[in-house]
Design a protein that fits this description.
462 residues; alpha+beta; Outer membrane efflux proteins (OEP); 4-stranded antiparallel beta sheet; 3-stranded antiparallel beta sheet; 10 helices; 7 strands; 60% helix; 10% strand
Amino acid sequence: MADNHPAILSAENSASAALSDIDQAKAANSLKVSAGVSAVGYAGQSSGYENTLFSPHVSASKILYDHGRADAAINGREAAYYMQQAQTIATRESVQKQILTWYVTALSDAKMGAVMDEQIKALTDLRDRIKKIAAIDPGRAFEINQVEARLNSALVSKETRDISGQQAWKQLSQLLQENVSLTHELPDLKKAGLFPASLEQAEQLLKEHPSLAASKFKRDEAEATARQAAKWNRPQWKVQLSMDSPRRNGDIELFKTTTLQFSTDIDLFDGGSGAANEKSQALRLSAADAELEATKRSLTQELRQLWVSLPLREKQLATLETQTAVAKKTLEAGEEQFLAGRRPLTDLISFISDYYASMASYEDNQVQYVATQWKIMSALGRISKLIKDRPTLSAPVLNKNLGQYEINKRALNNIRRPAPVNNSAGKNPFKESQTAITKPATEPGENMLTVENNNLRAWPWK
């Protein structure tokens, strides 16, 4: 998908242009042949030749030796070509990094949005139960407002998350200029055996980073250009053969005269332009050396920062998994105590919020843990190579139903509340209340990020 991005196409065309520049540099010392017409006038000569306005001529010339000017130019053009090739790969990696950023954002928002959907379902179910209870016990009607306040807060958070996810997904679709759908998570590169085993191994791979290669070739180009500029006052030898068509006695003698000339030229004084150019190219070489070192440091720093964060995220993920399990048990116990009348509603609402907050954090960190692996591969400049070597790679299907918390049926069976006086004939409000409590909540709406038509199943390998 990313291959059609204009930045990549531009880099590829620049590489093709640089290849033509090599041919141009190689032709500098080749044999050159030219033909033309000139007007010739003679003065102070007794050769018998006459002035003419039409004199065809042919000439051929070749530089025999130029003190390495042409070789330096060829080396510079070749380095520029290799630099453009590396830059093309670096541009592709940059586009892949943008894709990864938006994909991770959309994926995280989708998974956290799914958790929020379940929280909204749980709070909606709790509100409906409280309404039934309040119909029996009007003194508890104020509890409805307590639940609705938390429910409204959850709805606002869900809408904010949906907006963020939609923005990320639209950015991704705009970047690829294609309609795609969010159906799969990112593959775990560690589990697939496609991840460096150690930081030392990763740093060895970093030496092949396309941006680093581009900086090295840029330095080589600057060095070749500096060598060429240093030869501005060196002589060069050239041979030239000319064939002219003089006019004699009113007739043109086509290519009658032939001149063979060997010459050498040296610039004794050029106004200081040669020396100034030599100095400027030396400074550009120094700048290229500094840029190469800066690129090395920047790439190494990015890699080490990401590498340090990976085990921390793994540890945090294990902590959040334990925290979520504890929060679920606390919610189950709190709900049982609330239904038995031993816990206030505020405690239950707090337990619900804690549980789903822990679950949301766990889901987000799970995404970020795998995403960190991909960011490390991006920092190594290896995503394009990974796509080439593994055109397809399995990824978990995005699960939008993360395991809704189910009501503790045993606690419901143990509810024992005295039935109030019923003035409605043929109705049992307490029975209706109990039925409403055990009724499952409605299914959540489909996540907004799954409405596109095309499948991004193997992203970004296709």
